[in-house]
Amino acid sequence: DIQMTQSPSSLSASVGDRVTITCRASQSLINYLNWYQQKPGKPPRLLIDGASSLQSGVPSRFSGSGSGTDFTLTIISLQPEDFGTYYCQQSYNTLFTFGGGTTVEIK
Amino acid sequence: QLQLQESGPRLVKPWETLSLTCTVSGGSISSRDSYWGWIRQPPGKGLEWLGSVWYSGHTYYSPSLKSRVTVSVDTSKNQFSLRLTSVTDAETAVYYCARHRYTNGWGGFDYWGQGTLVTVSS
């Protein structure tokens, strides 16, 4: 099994801050890593797939980077609507494992 | 715009079978690059993929559930379904259906249903 570890598990930041969330895989994913945002009571929203490919309609303040085992989701200027929980997910193999999530709170 | 909608019983007794259906609209479930999956989320917890199906009926399952889970497709109705046997109260969760694509490798789950809370309780 591929284990996905996200850090931190939660963070609190101010509007305008740069926020970085890390996802580490237990084996190489090449670039088969996806990022989601989930708000309470809603399904997850795919933000980025292929480690760095921004989905249509996702604001450009979101970016993804990394390859192999270490990946990063960056929000370059946090906005009030960016609160929620962020998940990484591997699609390297057909186990489609999710990370444990990072909850982002706006100060 | 592709839309997915889960339906099925919201309350299941322990050791019985959970059955849900996802109806796809705004697109064909027979699209060759699309797989259709089920993901669940216990209250206050993270996401767990359960299984996925292609329009041909080819399936992938989570190894931890493989003996109890079945995902099937009905192309005539543009629907796919989840069946999970011998459920326990720990499997109370919001169950989502979602689409993911395979084009030179697997993509993310890009379209989701709204989710349905299934409670396992006697």
Give a verbal description of the structure:
The complex is a heterodimer of chains A (107) and B (122). Chain A is mainly beta and 107 residues long. Chain A contains no helices and 10 strands. Chain A has strands at 4-7, 10-13, 19-25, 33-38, 45-49, 53-54, 62-67, 70-75, 84-90, 102-106. In chain A, the strands form 2 sheets. In chain A, strands 2-10-9-4-5-6 form a 6-stranded mixed β-sheet, with no helix packed on it. The mean pLDDT of chain A is 97. Chain B has 122 residues and is mostly beta strands. Chain B contains no helices and 11 strands. In chain B, strands 2, 4, 5, 6, 9, 10 and 11 form a 7-stranded mixed β-sheet that branches. In chain B, strands 1-3-8-7 form a 4-stranded antiparallel β-sheet, with no helix packed on it. The model of chain B has no long low-confidence stretch (mean pLDDT 97). Classes of the chains: A mainly beta (107), B mainly beta (122). Chain A binds chain B through residues 1, 32, 34, 36, 42-46, 48-50, 55, 87, 89, 91-92, 94-101, and chain B through 37, 46-49, 52, 60, 62-63, 96, 98, 100, 105-110, 112-115.
Task: Give the topology.
The complex is a heterodimer of chains A (107) and B (122).
Chain A: E1 4-7, E2 10-13, E3 19-25, E4 33-38, E5 45-49, E6 53-54, E7 62-67, E8 70-75, E9 84-90, E10 102-106
Parallel strand pairs in A: 2-10
Antiparallel strand pairs in A: 1-3, 3-8, 4-5, 4-9, 5-6, 7-8, 9-10
Chain B: E1 3-7, E2 11-12, E3 18-25, E4 34-41, E5 48-54, E6 59-61, E7 69-74, E8 79-84, E9 93-102, E10 106-112, E11 116-120
Parallel strand pairs in B: 2-11
Antiparallel strand pairs in B: 1-3, 3-8, 4-5, 4-9, 5-6, 7-8, 9-10, 9-11
